[in-house]
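Hi R.,

Here's the chain you asked about this morning:
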Amino acid sequence: MRGLLLFVCVICIAACAKAPDVSSFALTVLGHDEATKEWTMESNDTRSKQRIRYVATCSTYHQAGHPMDSGADACSFRVGETMVESFKPKSWTDITIDNSGTMAILTGQGSDQVIQLLKVKSAHVVEIPR
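And the predicted structure, written out as tokens:
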């Protein structure tokens, strides 16, 4: 009996360790306006089945071990880039948008961590075509 219990525990641990990293939230960079310094991004949340389009300006960029950079030109995104929330060590990405209108995008961990903060100027729900 004890052997069976140990076997079941080992199987459960192995199954959990190999579980896919399925995220319900992704953020895509749609564009950047050089004149206004505004980033246009769209989130896709599969749990709430909503897409939200954000217009935001950069506040802060900080890479671990380097001085913090502030201002509208500080952030480093690529148009077309999609960031998918993941809490696995090699692909760590955490995207948070709080009620005060601050968007925080954290990528990497430890000495590879990058934190980018943006101020959301507008947000609206985008209709999903059927």
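The longest strand covers residues 50-63.

Let me know if you need anything else.
M.
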